Amino acid sequence: MAKLGTAGLVFVTVFAGLLWCVHGQLEARTLFSQWKHEHNRRYKTDDEERARFATFQDNLLKIEKLNAEYSGTEFATNQFADMSGDEFRSKILMRPLPPPQHPRERYLRADGEVNDLPEAYNWVDHGAVTPIKDQGSAGSCWAFSTIENLEGQWFLAKHPLTNLSVEQVVDCDDNTDPKTGNADCGVFGGWPYLAFQYIKRVGGIEKEEDYPYCSGLGGEKGTCFPCPAPAYNASMCGPAVSYCNETESCGFRLDKSKFIPGLQVTDWAAIDTNETTIAVQLMKIGPLSVALNAVLLQFYHRGVFEPHFCDPKSLDHAVLLTGWGVEKTIFGEKKPYWIIKNSWGKKWGMDGYFYIKRGVGQCGINTQVATAILQKT
Ligand SMILES: *[C@@H]1O[C@H](CO)[C@@H](O)[C@H](O)[C@H]1NC(C)=O
Ligand SMILES: *[C@@H]1O[C@H](CO)[C@@H](O)[C@H](O)[C@H]1NC(C)=O
Ligand SMILES: *[C@@H]1O[C@H](CO)[C@@H](O)[C@H](O)[C@H]1NC(C)=O
Ligand SMILES: *[C@@H]1O[C@H](CO)[C@@H](O)[C@H](O)[C@H]1NC(C)=O
User: Fold this and answer.
1) pLDDT for 312-337, tens place per residue?
2) Which of 176, 233, 236 to mutate to test the pocket of ligand 2 (most atoms within 8 A of CB)?
3) Which residues are catalytic?
4) What string of DSSP letters covers 346-375?
5) What average pLDDT is seen over the chain?
6) Is 248 in the pocket of ligand 3 (CB under 6 A)?
């Protein structure tokens, strides 16, 4: 090395750096091609291709940083790998809002029932959960969360497990809560507690096969362009979609004669933020609708999700709580987590599911827990 001198050293360093860059670029190109193939992605123009590749490269770096920062969680590329963080937030998540507070009498308590909780429990093992769905690029998570809670309630009322219609809720639910300014806004977001009230008001729900999901599904599966729900309120929801197709909308598609006989929502309940209470109620009631701040979930792959900072008062995603468990780390520590069903397809996360730290109000997961109450049959 001494013989090289300073100039030589600088040269070698620059050359190595350049090589590394070229190599990094090549590797990113290969990864991008593989990724496009796997996710069946094609871009309309070369400009778009270039821009998407640049975003993909940024995301590779982001993922590398996340993996270095969090030893207990693995992050990886997935269907969102060509989306910037801003695009992910605006297309997939909802506008972040604080958790609504409900009147005291809404909340279920769990006094004196906490002693017999098992270390782990999961409603998936008890047949109360349908397969993982994919919301596509629409802010319709809240309708999935609502419907999946209802599927569990229907099953636990001793009926066969049935896929219920998410699209009915996305297209038809125009419920609002003037006290909080919250509203159900189709592909622009909504709240499960308001959707339970909508299903109660309209008198039932169709099956998925009778009123299938289509919003936000581009490509092969076909997509649809439903018009906003009948009383869509633009001052609460923001401007409506710029294009819509009347025959793909609630007015044309809703068929009350296809409502599942006997399935009536009579009311809904909230569960307070105490995570022991949530576990007790989960076991007693069934899978529960929950919400969280999901900004850092974009590249989640596996493990217990526990970001250092994640605003619990800024909810932008609704999902289904199906169970809990405890992870034993190599140091013999026990890390309690919740098991959550997401609506981003089976390839995302752990076959569509994720774990999130339990007992610390992580990302607000305990702040908007709710369930429908069905008429007894
Ligand atoms: C529900 O839909 C899925 C496809 O998304 C299908 O595989 C499943 O058989 C359907 N029925 C039930 C009861 O899960
Ligand atoms: C829409 O919401 C605003 C704000 O809550 C309310 O003042 C207005 O009356 C609503 N419009 C309609 C047509 O319901
Ligand atoms: C509107 O939707 C119907 C039903 O899916 C479809 O047949 C029709 O081609 C659509 N119209 C337009 C203009 O896209
Ligand atoms: C949560 O509820 C349990 C059971 O009622 C109680 O023992 C515990 O102290 C509560 N935790 C908090 C943080 O209030």
Assistant:
1) 999 999 999 999 999 998 888 899 99
2) 233
3) 141, 317, 342
4) TTSTBTTEEEEE-SS-GGGTTSSEEEEEEP
5) 92
6) yes
What are the chain's domains? 86-374 (3.90.70.10)
User: From ligand 4's centre to the CA of 152, what distance in Å?
Assistant: 26
Residue 236 CA, closest ligand 2 atom number: 2
At 94, is the secondary structure helix, strand, or coil? coil
pTM value is: 0.92
Beta strand spans in 27-103 (E): 73-75
Burial category of 316 from C-beta neighbours within 10 Å (exposed 0-12, middle 13-18, buried 19 and up): buried
Q: Is there a contact between 150 and 353 (Cβ–Cβ < 8 Å)?
A: no
Beta strands 353-357 and 300-305 are parallel
Enumerate residues 6+ apart whose C-beta is below 8 A from 142.
94, 184, 189, 190, 191, 192, 195, 291, 318
For the stretch 105-119, what's the b/e string if a residue is b when 16 or more beta carbons lie within 10 angstroms of its beta carbon?
eebbebeeeeeeeee
